[in-house]
Structures are given as C-alpha cells and as structure tokens.
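All the exercises in this workshop are built on plain-text protein records. Sequence and backbone structure share a record, each on its own labelled line. The question running through the whole workshop is how a given chain folds. The record below serves as our worked example for the rest of this section.
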Amino acid sequence: MNDHAIRTTPTSRSAGERFKRKAGSLAAGAAGAAMLVIVLVAGMWAIEVADYVLPVDFDAYGIRSWDPEGLGGIVLAPFLHDGFGHLMANSLPLLILGFLAALRGLGRFLLASLIIIVVSGLGVWFTSTPTTVTVGASGLVFGYFGFVVARGLFDRRALDIVIGIGVAVAYYSIIWGVLPGEAGISWQGHLFGLVGGIVAAWVLRRKRAAVPAY
C-alpha cells in the first residue's frame, strides 16, 4: 500500500481560515450583543422595582409634551414604565430585536439606540397632547424593528437581508401600532421610533468604495 500526500493549496487554506475568522467574529459579536441587551433589559427591571419600592414616582421624569423642562425625559423615558405589565410587554421583543440590532457591532448599536431615542422622543414631545407624560421602551422596540429591516436594504449584506426579511415576516403586525388606536398607548412613540430606526440604518449604513471614473 502506498502513502499519498495530499497537498493543500494556499487558496483552499486561506478560504478556510477566512471562514473560521468570520464564524469566530460572528460568535463573539452574538455573545456581546446578547450580554449587552440582557444588561439593558435587566436595568429597566431594576428601575421599575425601585420605582415600586421607593416613595418616588419615577414616571414623572418621562417626556412631558410641549414643556421645555420635559425635554430631559427624552433620554429617561425609554427606561421607565407604567407598571410591571407594561415592562413585561416590552421585554421580550426588546431582547429579540435588540439582540439582532446589536449583531453588527456594539458601537453601531449604541449609536443606533441614541438616534432612535432622540428621534422618537422629539416626535413624542412635538406631537403628543400638551402636558402628556410618556414613558416606555416601545419607541426602542419599533426603532430596532425599523433598524434591522432597513439595514438589510441599505447594507445589502446577505446575512442582514435574511435577518431583515425574517424580522419583517415575524413582526409585521406591530406596524399597526404606529396608527392612533387605544387610549393611553403612545402611537407617536411607535411611529417616530420606527422612523428613528430607519434613519439610524441610513446614517450607519456600510459605506461602499467609490468606483473610479475613466
């Protein structure tokens, strides 16, 4: 019996190494995304527990429409909720959509979150009935939905497109939340959160190299 040496070409070896690097990078990104989003939601639960236990009404620090002093609530409102039922309704979609939004990098995720919070908060402040106080992470939920779906359109990466399509199919029904409906539900926060997510996807889209003209 003869022994045969199998020669591995540089091309096949480098392709395998690239695949391992990409797989390792994706796994590390997924772990970091999961940890960050879990910490984010856990922080919201800690705040709600403190709001329940302490003799302080944290919800008063939400967005007070048309009140200049209420502008500070734009940053605080996503982390405040009107009771545990409200927080429970937001927690699962926030975990899922936040995780998917954070897969492409924690830096981009944080910037996208900031854009969503500002766009959603300003929209609520300008369009809600004066003196209305708005709290809740629904703007972030709709924002991450818009960000993940629009990211697939703007970046045109295969994985982002697949994720975007999957999210659009699984959560398409939440789109109805951007329309005026049940009293006490901030459709403004939903609408402008969605707008903020699309804006964030456009601002943070992957820049393509310019093709030189001859």
Notes: DSSP finds seven helices and two strands in the chain. Helices lie at 10-53, 73-76, 84-102, 106-127, 138-155, 158-171, 187-203. The domain at 15-204 is CATH 1.20.1540.10 (Rhomboid-like fold).
